[in-house]
Amino acid sequence: MKALILAAGRGERMRPLTDHTPKPLLPVRGKPLIVWHLEALAASGVREVVINTAWLEEQFPALLGDGSCFGLVIRYSMEGRDHGGALETAGGIATALPLLQSDTFWVVGGDVFIPGFRFDAQHVTDFTARGDLAHLWLVPNPPQHPRGDFGLSPEGRVLAADDTQQQTRYTYSTVGLFQSALVAGVAPGRKAALKPCFDAAIAQGRISGSLYTGPWADVGTPERWQALQNDET
After folding, report:
1. Phi first, then psi: what are they for 134, rounded to 5°?
2. Do the Cβ atoms of 46 and 37 come closer than 8 Å?
3. Can you tell me the distance from the alpha carbon of 84 to that of 158, in angstroms, rounded to the nearest whole number?
4. pTM of the predicted protein model
5. Which domains does the chain have, with CATH numbers?
6. Rounded distance, CA 18 to CA 12, Å?
7. Cβ contacts of 162 within 8 Å, gap of 6 or more
8. Separation between Cα atoms, residue 171 and residue 89, nearest integer Å
9. What is the reported pLDDT for 231?
10. Whole-angstrom Cα distance, residue 68 to residue 53?
11. Pairing mode of beta strands 112-113, 73-78
């Protein structure tokens, strides 16, 4: 199984911390945020990871190398070097597909802290059997995002935010299993947001979801980053 870590963003809200360090490389409890993901992926049996980069992207291979120290093979989709800057989420995924060389892959945001998540192979087996375009892990809404992103049906189907079936909305954790067909309409090397891809797949009934209730944080501001250093829960 392969994985894509999304790490190309500028992290404007994290300034001045991100003026000289990409947000995924900021330390959390003694190691860079992205290393938590790499270690969890390796522990779950993933062996190949692509990291998309743009802002201060030369720092990623300088710190992480080829991944061998984690028991991984890491490749870099360098959007800054090759395309002049970050391509947004869907554009970044579409551009990374030739490096992934897989129709099914994990996707995880490089700027979230989710230390207890396990990239279990059984999730992949179940997802592949369903034939969906994506499976998203949703979390209870954090204070900074009280309205959430999606609903979740009792059958485990992700619902649009305005769907009348949904009773409660949840926040997308930025962890998911994707099929490459989710971004089939996105041209590699072009900027494109992921939400239209999600909206189209939800309208087709082809996104499933699970509620994740373990520790999770969107490391979106210096205050949230600092709070993680002090909170061992």
Report:
1. -160, 155
2. no
3. 34
4. 0.94
5. 2-230 (3.90.550.10)
6. 7
7. none
8. 17
9. 63
10. 19
11. unpaired
